[in-house]
Each structure stands twice: as structure tokens, then as C-alpha cells.
Amino acid sequence: MFTQYYSSRARVSEALRRLGERRAVATALRRFSRLKSSLSKRLDLEALAERLSEARRRTLAQLSELVKQAAESLEENGFQVHYARDAREARRIAEKLVEPGSLVVKSKSSAIEEAGIAEHLRSLGSEVYETDLGEYAVQLARSHRAHPIVPALHLSREKIAELVSRDVGYKVPPDPREITKAVRRRLREVFTKAGYGLTGANFISAEEGVIALVSNEGNIRNSTSFPKTHIAVAGLNKVVRDLDEGLLVIRALAPFSIGSRLPSYVSLIAGPSKTADIELETVVGVHGPSEVHVILLDNGRSRAWDLGVEEALCCINCGGCLNECPAYTIAGRAYGHVYKGGIGVVYTALTEGLEKAVEAGLYLCTTCGRCVLSCPCRINTPALVERLREAAARRGLMAEPHYRWLSSPRELQDDKPLEEQLPL
Predict the structure, then answer these.
(1) Which domain holds residue 189?
(2) Average pLDDT, the chain
(3) Same domain, 66 and 116
(4) What's the structural domain count of the chain?
(5) Is residue 151 part of a domain?
(6) What pLDDT digit, counting tens, does each position of 5-35 carry?
(7) Distance in angstroms (rounded) separating the CA atoms of residues 333 and 157
(8) Whether the predicted pLDDT of 215 surpasses 70
(9) 244 plus 269 within the same structural domain
(10) Nearest to 328 by CA among 30, 84, 113
(11) Using CA atoms, how far apart are residues 394 and 123, in angstroms rounded to an integer?
(12) Could you tell me if residue 206 is left (phi over 0), alpha (psi between -120 and 50 degrees) or otherwise beta?
């Protein structure tokens, strides 16, 4: 009955022992909050959040119709669209698209990680390189990302330098500029040889049939330009009504996550590369990919309405909620699974089930509500967590102290404070 709860507690206990990592995470989150506070004096972030929140909820109300429209619009633009009901089907689709033993360059993507696509391709003999510097460091460390925007938040510069030195074959000093230079040199040769680019999508516009990708490093442009085939994997919730809504997503991502105005690069892709410069005859495949595939991933998202947590699908995965979350500040990457924090636990329930959600930290949320105020979509994550806790309790998936308390009501003494009554 308490297996998942004990697993969650063990993960948090281990995280508490990683003092250096906890300090690094807490320092970074404080910095993000300061930068956002400073930026809010120049940008009306409240107005932006209000517009985005309204737009995302309008889209959510018609999501199934918009997903169909998006698929049709994408195909009209020359994309090849695939629908994956679950992670296994997404892996099977990717397996058919990527020839075994190929060289694949990959951008940072929670959907790809959720479906286990990169690991599956590696098991079939392909080399899959992370091209985001933080994800590259996490890959070398055989670790897991700590934050959706800053994945190597938990790794020190000394540790990253050590990992990169081992990979490139020469000593790289623990200086961010030198580390960046070494990684750029290492990955540049990989980009030019790769046959496949594997990315996520920050949004997919249903009306225009366009996928959008953002980055600060420029790696996504290389990943979607050099290879002959580009494969984008996106959850159904990444579909937006049109480019107007999509640009609201782009405008909110950086300010609410790390307190910067905009990402350095915003790519809008409307199909494979092509030219009609020779007697107006269209030729597909010029300097960019000749094939662009989009895998639309359900993997439990359509169950959100059954569980009463459909509001979670408004999430743009900016990580802004993590910056203010007291539980995440302490537990770090132990709070959540692929997706972090309270909203991450909700996504875990959708994509992997309630048992995994309990293990990921369903009972860690304090329901303080600070995440709601820092979310650009104003998602009421505490309310969603409480609904999942109710569903978990009905299935006997409870925290042991809660179970003992509820099972022994006669032992409670009304004249004692509540904290003394609970057998924690």
C-alpha cells in the first residue's frame, strides 16, 4: 500500500544529502526570481499572463478539433504527420523513421524524454547526441535534468569541465567560456555528419500548419538545418489556435522562466526546405531537410478530463512555477519525474499513472499557491494535486502518516494542537 510513498521519501532523503546541489538550485532560483522582478518593471507581465491564460483556455476547450486541424494544415505544408497514442507507439514510429546505426542530433525536449525515444534509438545502435549544452552535460553525467529550461542546474562548473574533458579528450578548465568553446567545437563536427535531427516543439499552429522552436544557443537551428530528416515530437497540448496565440507563448517563456526578455532564436518551420527557382518547378530538399515528420503524442493527455486535471494542459513548460516552489527548492529534481514540481507530478499521473505520480512526489506539494502566481497561464496546480490525491486515496495510494491518522480517529485529543495529534 505504501510502496510508492516510501520510494518518494527515499528519493527526497537522497536529495537532501546532496548539499552542493541543493545550494546550487536554491541560488539559481533566487536569481531567476530577482531577474523576473526586475524585468516586470519594464514589461507588463501581468497583462501578458492574462492574455496567455485566456488564449490557452479557449484552445483547451476545442483541443480535439484543433489537433485535427493542425494535422491537416501540417500535411498541406508538406509535413508527414504521425499520431502516437502512447509512448510505446511513439518509439515505434521513431524506429521506422530512423535507420539503425544512424547519427542523430537532438534538442532539449521533455516530450522526447517522456516517450523514451532517444534511449530507444540508442538501443538500436544509433548515436544520439544532446546538443543543448546543459543537456549535453547531463547526458555525460548519466544524470537527469533538474529544470526544464536550465537542465544542468545541479552540476557545478568543475563537474561539467571534468565531464567535457573526458569526452573531448583534452583538459578543459572550469571556466564557462572555455567549456562552451570545447562543446561548440565537439558538436560542430557532429552537426555536419548527422542524418537526423530530433526536436520537440514549443507550439504547433493549427491554422497555419507551422511548428515553432526556441533556443538561446542556436543548436536547434543546426539540428533542423544540417540533417536530411527532421523529426519533431510534441504533446497534443502544444497545439495552439494560430500564430497569434503561439507568439504569446514565445513572449512568456523566457520572462517567466529565467527572467529574460526573449529567447535568442525563434524558428518557425512551415515544411521541408524547397526551391522553385528553376523554371518555377518545386524541388524539395535544398539546404535543409527533405523530410519533416511530426509525431503528435497523446500518452494520457486525453485522460486529463476524466481525472479533472485538464487545466494542466495549458502548461507551456517554462518552469516558472519551480522558481517559487518551496518543495522544489528543497527536493530539487527528486520532485517530479520527466516534468518537475507540482505540475510535473500532475503530468506524471497522466502519462505514467497515479502510482508513478505518488512516487514522483504527489504528497510533497504544500498547496501554498505560490506557483499559481508565478505561472504565466495561472494554472491552479494545488487544486489539481488535491484532486489527484483524492483519486490516489480511493485506490489506497496514501502517505503512511495520513493513513495512520485517518485509521485512528479515537486517539486524537481535541485539547492538543493538530501538529501534536498527527503521528508523523
Answers:
(1) 45-301
(2) 93
(3) yes
(4) 2
(5) yes
(6) 767 888 888 888 888 888 888 888 999 999 9
(7) 18
(8) yes
(9) yes
(10) 30
(11) 39
(12) alpha
